[in-house]
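Ticket #4471: complex job returned nothing on first submit. Input attached below:
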Amino acid sequence: MSDRINARNISDSEFFYGHKACAGCGGSLAVRIALKVLGENTLLVEPAGCMSAVSFNYPQMSFANNAIISAFAGTGAVMSGLKAGAEAMGLKDYHVLGIAGDGGTADIGIQALSGLIDRNDDVIYICYDNEAYMNTGIQKSGLTPFGATTTTTPAGSRVKGNIRPKKNLFEIVAAHGIPYAATASVGYIEDFANKVKRASEVKGTSFIHVLAPCPTGWGVDTSETIDIAREIVDTGLWYLAEYYDGEFHLNMKPKALEGVSHYIKRQSRFKHLSDEDIETIIRERDKTWERIALIGA
Amino acid sequence: MIRPSLEPRPVIRKLSEIPQGGSCKAGFLVDKNAGWRNRTPKLDIDKCIGCLQCYLYCPDGVISKKNLDSDGRQLTKVDIDYDFCKGCGICEKICRRGAISMEENDG
Amino acid sequence: MGEIRYVSGDEAFAQGIRLAKPQVISAYPITPQTIVVERLADMVEDGSLDSKFVHVESEHSAMMTAMGASAMGARAFTATSSQGLLYMAECLTYVSGGRFPIVMMNANRATALPWSIYGDHRDSLSQLDSGWIQIYVEDAQESLDMALEAYRLAENEDVRLPVMINLDGFILTHTYEAVDIPSEEEISGFLKPRDTWDKLDLNNPVSMAFTVGPELNEEFNLLHHKASLAAIKELENIDAEYAKLTGRSYGGAVSGYLTEDAEYILITMGSISGLVRDSVDELRSEGVKAGVLKIRMIRPFPTDELLKHLGNAIAIGTLEKDISFGYEGTVYTNVNSALHKGRNFADSYDFIGGIGGRDISKEIIRECFTVMINQETDRLVRFVGLEVEDDVR
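Support reply: We reran it on our side without changes. The output follows.
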């Protein structure tokens, strides 16, 4: 395994620059760091979503490396095509990287992702999760957490915000027997960077699910992105883990599983939640950690 | 150091000049993002210890490493590209030394 | 002269693809295309085809994978039919607008509902606006030859568009004929390895498939349109060159039989054309100046080439396997537009048949000519070959 990546030794280059993402966008930080880790010989594919919509409007071309847009559902499929094409053309020393949002991965893109993992091409898939269809204006996705208000699950008396839990995408991917999968958060960016590095060294398909808060959609100030991306991990609402060799490995156990109420109350998307709702969220979090303990991760 | 750079906006007057297929060379920009800012990060270089956390966590990558020579000593500090800073304020929050402060724009 | 083999239309097409040497194949099985992908998998296994065969999990992914491979500069192939074609419909415009020279074989099959595995042309005709070049072949030999010509056309510098080769489901895909499979030497030089400056390149990074706003979007699409129009002449050139090597010419975008002095002409597409030629011969022996004009390439639409064959027509009938519900058959709509442009005022009829695999017999074909000769212009659009009495208003 190579040296651990940190702020000092990460590449100076900025492959994702001058884009039109919102100020404080967690997703753009994830894309930026992933490309700095993987370097200039990265063949990138992105579907419709925030990251492609803000970076690929002719003539403002924000990627310095090779990049192509996919149809919304097709990220995993284009990745297989890039890989097969690269092999056919005799290319050496390159990475095929697909970056898609939570909607483009867990909902409309899940078929192609499943097929991609099944084919086990030597590629890296990163899902940046801002917990809704943010590019189209904050609509509910399969990874929107319980209780969040979105424009399609507006919090009111009839529709009480989103009542379904987040799909467990990490475990769905792991259930495929993927060589390497990981969860991450832009709040712990070095951990994310090193997981990208590890993914690039794994033979076969790798998958990283990185929590990437969206100040616009979550209802926090643009300066709070990193803080809230740390808090979601520290409260145990999002765990940092890896899956390899057929086993789960927990990277970080929070010192104390607390602070959920503070985390919830600081975001406008949760402001309609009652104390009872927050208790529900805490109970679900506890159940998850009991299960993690049982698996012996 | 590779980074997309500002270039003059391509002028297309004839159909044959269209980059057909929707494909063109990568990494050129025609627009700055500076106009987005309501607040601007002001850097106090003396307080900066070169921990590089602001550089790491800037979503737009506008903070870069800057090497200074201080009486023969090589110091690593940072520099901000104000052409593309959107004024999100993450750098101010992440700095542990108070070397960055967000100031309201005039007017 | 190559090797004569007794093969089905699907198998003949697979042989053509083998000779075309695509570097990446991504296809999802669907009746009646399955034989094509099975044969290609066999060829990869026995080493006669050096291609990366990607097992995709849907047709949408099949086209997206082909696009990814093509973006790298590789020659890519895929195949589908009816529901699969419609499932990948959004990808068709990505690929054509992105100017990727992918070749796809489509086994023409009825679209659900009602669910049917049998042939008609509604699947591909519903995608005429997708920006692809569309060619319809008549027999197994043409299927093989067009697999090669399709890549020449797609990769031509002035065209650079994906090409869909259509084979009638079951009638052509599963019918066995004696086919001349050219040797490598015979067609050597006809199709060179794909060479393009426009690809994702580690030495010259590219942004591909980007967004274009209202300020330039229309111009991109006009350029695409012009590129499509260029394919009419290019197909003629390619046909002539292929004929020099193999002795087989198919005539470009349209192919007329006894149309020079014909007064009653049926316009056809695909495998039915052969039976119509037989009927034309019979009618000629009865003193009727009949003719048949086969459209081989419907997109781009060969307006001028079509009109050249219709100068003496008193009546023209479009015999097609399509209905645009609430209107008429799509081929008829296209033909009428050409007639109007060319100030050709012959009676123009639409004969819709063969839907959902319904057989078009010689009797039905004769019936079409009879309608034209008897000037039954009170009903210009009609379904032919119905098995029940039409008592619904």
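The longest strand of chain A covers residues 95-101. Closing as resolved unless it happens again.
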